[in-house]
Design brief:
By secondary structure, this protein is α+β, with helices and mostly antiparallel strands. It contains one helix and five strands, in the order βββββα. The protein is flat.
Length: 71
Amino acid sequence: MARYVICEGWDPSRCAFYATVVDTDKPLISGGEHYKDGSGRLCYESVCECFNMADAELVCKALNALSTITA
């Protein structure tokens, strides 16, 4: 699994962002356990939110490339 991945979906409470890039090395913890959203998806720390999928893919690709260089 890549370190940075895209979570699709639109949350009306978070403006008009359609995709969020998250860091899978940083899980969100609640009550001592890995937090899951309402659909059962594991949640991770957000890196950035994007207005469209194309931008999210570019950010995700760049961050994953950088993480392999600095690892």
